[in-house]
Amino acid sequence: TKEHEDILKLIENETIPSVREAWIDYFLEKTKLSKYKKSD
What we know:
By secondary structure, the protein is mainly alpha-helical. It has one domain (2-39). It has two helices and no strands. It has helices at 2-13, 17-39. The longest helix is centred in the last third of the chain and has 23 residues, at 17-39. The radius of gyration is 11 Å and the shape is elongated.
């Protein structure tokens, strides 16, 4: 989705490792949740 692409861009451009980690965690939560919704 558009939101996922925006998050990936933020992750790519992030230079602070801890912030990047936080975005990756957030992204994984988002993608996991959307997968569960689709499988219902």
